[in-house]
Amino acid sequence: MAAIEVDQFVPRPAEQVWRALTDPDLLARWLMPNDFKPVVGHLFTFRTEPVPQHGFDGIVHCQVLAMEPPRLLRLGWRGGTLDTTVTWRLVPEGTGTRFLITHDGFDETDPAQQAAMNILGGGWRGDLVGRLLAVLGSGAGLRGTADRDRCRE
Amino acid sequence: MPDIDVFDAIASPVRRAILDLLQDGARPVHDVAASFAMTRPAVSQHLRVLRQAGLVAEERVGRERHYRLDARPLRTVMNWAGHYERFWQHHARLLGELLEEGE
């Protein structure tokens, strides 16, 4: 099963980044309005704009699954057709912190999710995605080979 | 307009394998069948689904029909997959900006 992985370097110490992940007001400023509490088992929601064509009503139902300050926070992440897991990891790097996001647990029985994960996980022989991009003549917003290779099965 | 949803078309591992094979160029149906342990009618059935999804185009070469990959409908799949990645990239950047402001 593949995962979506994103990482971002933040030139601040991990403790400070951790606060932005676990303070509801700060969380709202970079992600979405929420009623998060830093308590394992806590059920809460993020609220955003609905996306009717994806069957998404704008509410992400979450649960705090694991918390290891200041390095790991794992959330259950349900919304629309998704029933997934999001993991945030903080890794000190020099004077700053690397913020690693893993979004996984996509439904292998859902054709859309399965197909997308197949592509992200490099489940196609050769570089079909690269060829696709060449055919389409634009790589805007789509992941390249290097990115795909980072995804794990 | 395609009659079959691209997601359904590529949900089948056999059909994904056929698309992979066609990356190397157009092929006649017996050639595709020879590459898999499958009967020609079974392969034809899969090619029909791929054609209805717009992923494969049929062209006449002499007396034969060749099947050619058309990757364009896969953009829908890429968009789906890219959506969540872009979402997290965007918000991770916002987090960086928020903390750099020195709140």
Question: Could you please describe the fold and organization of this structure?
Answer:
The complex is a heterodimer of chains A (153) and B (103). Chain A is built from five helices and six strands, in the order E-H-H-E-E-E-E-E-H-H-H. Chain A has 153 residues and is of the alpha+beta class. Chain A has two domains: 106 residues, Alpha-D-Glucose-1,6-Bisphosphate, Chain A, domain 4; 33 residues, no CATH class. Chain A starts with a strand and ends with a helix. The C terminus of chain A is likely disordered. With 103 residues, chain B is α+β, with helices and mostly antiparallel strands. Chain B folds into two domains: 71 residues, Arc Repressor Mutant, subunit A (Orthogonal Bundle); 31 residues. Chain B contains five helices and three strands, in the order ααβααββα. Chain B has a three-stranded antiparallel beta sheet. Chain B is elongated.
Key descriptive features of the protein:
heterodimer; A: 153 residues; alpha+beta; Alpha-D-Glucose-1,6-Bisphosphate, Chain A, domain 4; six-stranded antiparallel sheet; 5 helices; B: 103 residues; Arc Repressor Mutant, subunit A; three-stranded antiparallel sheet; 59% helix; elongated
List the helices and strands and how they pair.
The complex is a heterodimer of chains A (153) and B (103).
Chain A: E1 4-10, H1 14-22, H2 24-30, E2 43-47, E3 59-68, E4 72-79, E5 82-93, E6 96-104, H3 111-120, H4 128-136, H5 145-150
Antiparallel strand pairs in A: 1-6, 2-3, 3-4, 4-5, 5-6
Chain B: H1 6-9, H2 13-22, E1 27-28, H3 29-35, H4 40-52, E2 56-61, E3 64-69, H5 74-100
Antiparallel strand pairs in B: 1-3, 2-3
Helix pairs in contact in B: 3-4
